[in-house]
Amino acid sequence: MTISEKVAYLKGLAEGLNLDTEKSKEGKLISVMIGILEEVGLSLEDLDENTTALGEELDAVSDDLADVEEIVYGDDEDECGCGCEDEDFFEVECPNCGEDLEIDESVLETGSVECPNCGEKFAIDLSDEDDGCGCGCDHDHGEDK
Fold first, then answer.
1. Do the bridges between strand 121-123 and strand 112-114 make them parallel or antiparallel, or are there none, so unpaired?
2. What is the mean pLDDT of the chain?
3. Better pLDDT: 12 or 142
4. Distance between CA 139 and CA 83 in Å, rounded?
5. CA distances from 110 to 13, 29, 114 (A)
6. 10 Å Cβ neighbour count for 26?
7. How far is CA 77 from CA 14, 87, 105, 111, 139, in A?
8. Using one digit for the tens of pLDDT, what is the confidence trace for 29-74?
9. CA distance 90 to 24
10. Maximum alpha-carbon separation in the chain
11. Cβ atoms of 107 and 113 closer than 8 Å
């Protein structure tokens, strides 16, 4: 039962009691209170309807924003579709301490790396790699699509 329905029931009870709203102070008071309750009930119903409509519009804006993010930022999936990370970072293992290091292409071009873990410098040998990313996708990440 909604608030408006409860107020209508209360109004019906008051009318059924045949309260004198013209001469009786109590009758006037109850009549005014029921009138106020009717206004409050209608206001609450309006607020509920507005909240529902606002929620639906917010959902629509959220969906539109997701579409815009998809257009602007694109997929999180990599270019080749193989699941590997297609970035300019490469993972190498320090031959001295065994620490896995991520290095970028500019460090790779210098040919040597200083391990931040043990401080030792070592040369980078790429001759034994069979593909550019180690994921087995048999393509060169350096190629432009």
1. antiparallel
2. 80
3. 12
4. 13
5. 91, 91, 11
6. 10
7. 68, 12, 21, 30, 16
8. 998 999 999 999 999 999 999 999 999 999 999 999 999 999 998 8
9. 90
10. 106
11. yes
Q: Which two tokens stand for residue 56?
A: 């639906």
More reliable by pLDDT, 145 or 10: 10
Amino acid making up residue 134: G
The rounded distance, in Å, linking the Cα atoms of 117 and 102 is: 12
Contact by Cβ (8 Å): 46, 54: no
Local confidence band at 76 (pLDDT 50, 70, 90 cut-offs): low
pTM for this structure? 0.43
Distances (CA, A) of 139 to 87, 102, 116: 14, 20, 31
Structure tokens, 130 = 């069979």
Nearest to 97 by CA among 72, 114, 112: 114
